[in-house]
């Protein structure tokens, strides 16, 4: 407060004769130049653990490194007229080729598929050491940013086909059965239905004006059938449901609130955060996978160019994939408007050597790869989804190309325009993904009232041999691989929170869903980093240098056409034990 | 602040004056403000997080797509009297055979395999103020080959101190691992000196960037800042490094212009 010590108050009658001693006023101002000292707020107990947790909880910066075990069976052989390929095959029955009774043929060398190429003397691709890890595959880190609808196609084991959209739900086929004397409609699905006995299903048929039906049971007598089959009690639906009917269903949790409790179905669309330029791939030390490598010596007399060398059909090296760039997920929301809790390693085949990836949309130089989902991969005959005529299966990525011709004497390949060998070949490769490029992903289900996403069927890519340069016995033969590998960076709670008050709404998380019918807000909490609940949900990555160090192990499988595909999980559950043991 | 007007009358009688004060500022939020302020103070008091993570720097591409880093080390021929050190630059040879026998080299004797080159990266060329921040070790098991004859007459190939390091093949000492956050120390420029640790004699020798015979003036009493170093620059845009002679901008360490170090002979 200012002081007024120098102010003299002189009444008017003392100042002037006859002055009227009246009307004396004194303006008083209060200026504050300090503030109250609040004792309690000035004390802070410093705890290393608390400070660590505070910094960790606030931090959304991630450094990602993962280890991939590369597993494949190189089992599709063919023949080629391109000398550079022909001179480097893993030969099958070369004695007959020497005698001229069959053309030179065999398997491409393992390094044509591996993450790492070591063929430093390969003049066909003008080998550069800096590109050793990027000739065959391109790496990226992505996150699901949007839900998209896609045309899908399912062929059952009897050859009956169903065209449907991802938004329609999960495909099924009806069987009419009597189980324990009860007439049941058994719905067989090619993918996990993610239903419980308490759920209902929304079907594309109506009975007495209703199209929502309660589930009677899950599965039949077969192992794990509860994942793929559910039943509805046949109360006399008659011709509403017929043996062999195909269709799609949606899960309904509450038949009195169909609008909000019906699951939505979609494909995730991934957006690129980190491109191949910012990802390092290196050999993971001395780690090998559990299979035996296959090598042999190709004798000089049993090769077309009379060169002795070692051929490798299969090998076992593991790799580390490390992002140079830190990933900050602040402000990012996922495909359902929730905070981003998972990132993905996305791997696409580049195939720079040109064995694969002839574009399916040639006028646009796009579509070297095909895409589909797990239920499109069937053992035995190639699933019709993957036929060249199915443009819904084409992945519209940009394709690059270059040309070469056979050199004189069948040795090194000549460049374009080289008239040494006469025959010119065109080689195609997929261009790496750029920042913010998008790519379709898994087929998923999301339910607003449970706030959970469920992966119905994982996305797969297929590479086919370019028959112009490498001719296989069956033209559609190729390899499948899974492009997206999930990296959990945060975790939602297993419980669902809800709130129906009118005050305190400011504290709701922004991702809370408001149910008009239930008149309440619904959401799942985000677990703090380092917290693992009793079900094992949560993430606990090392936190140091003001960043979270994420590490995951993955298996990258290159699945040959026709193999008995089964997607085993990586989790090996511990045996159940009790005190008696 | 505006207050009501009061009239003060001097009548020598003590008066009590009640002043109604209208407070227009709002103490709401002071608690949160204090907590925020306390957090800031705590951050100042304790050590705030510093990013000590390292990144991998590879050799920046040259000649369109080459990435190898090339080192050549030359040792003084021990058969030449050291008083002749200033006479001829051919006294320095790119071979280990000046210090080891062909058999020791071919059979990788312990004396040979325990030897190595040590490249130290300093922040300054001035010995009085410089600090060493990084060290690269080049083991003798890497390098190109040269043909020799063993004692038993066999023609064989042995390693020579001529390195071509790259992403594949010989790569120990190729990558430089240094702080990912440039602001931690603010260093992007280093000066590289080299020593050879000889496992046979247990001694090390210093190496300089040109043969002593080519040094003008007194070739044993020169300014060390001019002859002991090459320069290393880190590029944080693409996590690469470049090598050059310390006093000019031309690239060194390339296939065309490898980094050359010569044994310093104290004559």
Summarize the structure.
With 581 residues, chain A is mainly β.
Characterize the structure shown.
The complex is a heterodimer of chains A (581) and B (267). Chain A is mostly beta strands. Chain A has six helices and 37 strands. In chain A, β36 and β37 form a beta hairpin. Chain A starts with 11 loop residues before the first helix and ends in a 21-residue tail after the last strand. Chain B is mostly beta strands and 267 residues long. Chain B is elongated, with a radius of gyration of 33 Å. Classes of the chains: A mainly beta (581), B mainly beta (267). Chain A binds chain B through residues 9, 11, 21-31, 38, 41-42, 44, 46, 51, 55, 63, 118, 120, 128-130, 132, 280, 324, 545-547, and chain B through 1, 3, 5-10, 19, 21, 30-31, 34-35, 38, 42, 45-46, 49-53, 55-56, 58, 61, 65-68, 166-169, 239.
Topology:
The complex is a heterodimer of chains A (581) and B (267).
Chain A: H1 12-15, H2 48-58, E1 61-72, E2 78-79, H3 83-86, E3 90-91, H4 94-99, E4 105-107, E5 137-148, E6 151-155, E7 161-165, E8 170-179, E9 182-188, E10 200-207, E11 210-214, E12 217-218, H5 225-228, E13 229-233, E14 246-252, H6 258-261, E15 264-274, E16 279-288, E17 294-298, E18 309-314, E19 317-323, E20 327-328, E21 342-349, E22 369-373, E23 394-395, E24 399-405, E25 414-415, E26 424-430, E27 438-447, E28 452-457, E29 459-464, E30 471-472, E31 478-481, E32 484-488, E33 497-499, E34 513-515, E35 520-523, E36 543-544, E37 547-560
Parallel strand pairs in A: 1-37
Antiparallel strand pairs in A: 1-19, 1-20, 2-4, 2-30, 3-4, 5-15, 5-21, 6-7, 8-9, 8-14, 9-13, 10-11, 10-14, 12-13, 15-27, 16-19, 17-18, 21-32, 22-23, 22-29, 24-25, 24-26, 27-28, 29-31, 31-37, 33-35, 34-35, 36-37
Chain B: H1 30-45, E1 54-59, E2 69-76, E3 92-93, H2 102-106, H3 110-113, E4 116-122, E5 132-139, E6 145-149, E7 155-159, E8 162-165, E9 176-179, E10 189-198, E11 203-208, H4 224-227, E12 230-235, E13 240-245, E14 251-252, E15 259-263
Parallel strand pairs in B: 1-13, 2-15
Antiparallel strand pairs in B: 1-9, 2-3, 2-8, 4-5, 4-10, 6-7, 10-11, 10-12, 11-15, 12-13, 13-14
